[in-house]
Amino acid sequence: MIRKLNILLLLTSAIAFVSVYALKYSVQEVAATKIKLQRQIEHQKADLSLLEADWSYLNQPGYIQPIIDRHLAELNLQPIAQSQFGLLSDIPMRPAQPDTEAMTTLIKSLESGIDPADKPIGGH
Questions:
Q1: Cα distance between residue 51 and residue 30, in whole Å
Q2: Which pTM was predicted?
Q3: Contact (Cβ atoms closer than 8 angstroms) between residue 63 and residue 57
Q4: Can you give 8-50 as a three-state secondary structure string?
Q5: Do 106 and 116 form a contact (C-beta atoms < 8 A)?
């Protein structure tokens, strides 16, 4: 009986040892993968920083203007006039109070089965 118990404990210990050993290498592999991904992220951040610096340089007016001048005839580019922009006064102001009567009428008509979207514009 004791001999069987000793064999069982020895097998259990061996299985536990192999499991812990495998777990150790699994954790080391995950850690190595994490470090590899962190390095890859840092390299990509550095590349992105370089690309942003290039983009900033290439978007400078002094760099773009000679290109525009060179292709002005082909692209038929015209200077922007201030009249092309709207005025702040053209933007409608928000009403002080919402029109609850119109919303109530809409909800009642929808509940009664009438969809105002089905009516032609102008009420004809």
A1: 31
A2: 0.45
A3: yes
A4: HHHHHHHHHHHHHHHHHHHHHHHHHHHHHHHHHHHHHHHHHHH
A5: yes
pLDDT along the chain (124 residues), means of 10: 89 93 93 97 96 92 86 82 83 77 87 77 54
Task: Return the structure tokens found at 48.
Answer: 């992105």
With beta carbons less than 8 A apart as the criterion, state whether 109 and 116 touch: yes
Q: For the chain, what is the radius of gyration of the CA atoms? A: 37
Cα separation, 29 vs 36, in Å, equals 10
Q: Which residues contact 106 (CB under 8 A, 6 or more apart)?
A: 116
Amino acid at 102: A
Check if the beta carbon of residue 52 is closer than 8 Å to that of residue 58: no
**Phi and psi dihedrals of 71, rounded to 5?**
-110, 15
* 7/1 Cα distance (integer angstroms): 10
